[in-house]
């Protein structure tokens, strides 16, 4: 049964996806005490990257912003995989985003706003977080964006 957070996701016209399977030797999310840390989430949709390449070259900043939203949604799915219920999120503590960037691209913060805004739309004040937006030369599978989140849960239950 879905709770208030998943109802809000549906209200936004979105669907919480299945957890993206790991590409290597790691878990999509790990829980320790009242915290959940996700692995870096690529903008996979039904097992595939909809776009590949560098932001500022093959990928527009607007496309990358939308892909960052998808990454954040995939991160929420990873959180749910270890908590069973997104309503247990007390707050998003930190978001770290990586943008595969053309050499002259400097708009990483605007790209990562896609993830930050999605978390705010879904979680309200609980979605307000600290963040890093980092430009990198390349990401796995030539993905344009990768996002990881850290959340605090309401209890250790």
TrEMBL record:
Coiled coil: none annotated. It comes from the Bacteria. Residues 6-149 form the Endoribonuclease L-PSP/chorismate mutase-like domain. InterPro entries: Endoribo_LPSP/chorism_mut-like, RutC-like_sf. SUPFAM superfamilies: YjgF-like (SSF55298). This is RidA family protein.
């Amino acid at each position: 049964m879905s709770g208030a957070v998943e109802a809000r996701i549906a209200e936004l016209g979105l669907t919480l996806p299945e957890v993206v399977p790991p590409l290597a030797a790691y878990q999509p999310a790990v829980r320790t005490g009242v915290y959940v840390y996700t692995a870096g989430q690529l903008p996979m949709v039904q097992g595939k990257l909809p776009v590949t390449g560098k932001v500022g070259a093959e990928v527009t900043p607007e496309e990358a912003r939308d892909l960052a939203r998808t990454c954040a949604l995939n991160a929420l799915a990873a959180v749910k995989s270890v908590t069973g219920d997104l309503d247990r999120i007390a707050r998003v503590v930190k978001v770290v985003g990586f943008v595969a960037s053309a050499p002259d691209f400097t708009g990483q913060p605007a790209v990562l706003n896609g993830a930050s805004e999605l978390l705010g739309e879904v979680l309200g004040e609980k979605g307000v977080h600290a963040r890093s937006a980092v430009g990198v030369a390349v990401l796995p599978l030539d993905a344009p964006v990768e996002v990881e989140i850290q959340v605090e849960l309401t209890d250790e239950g």
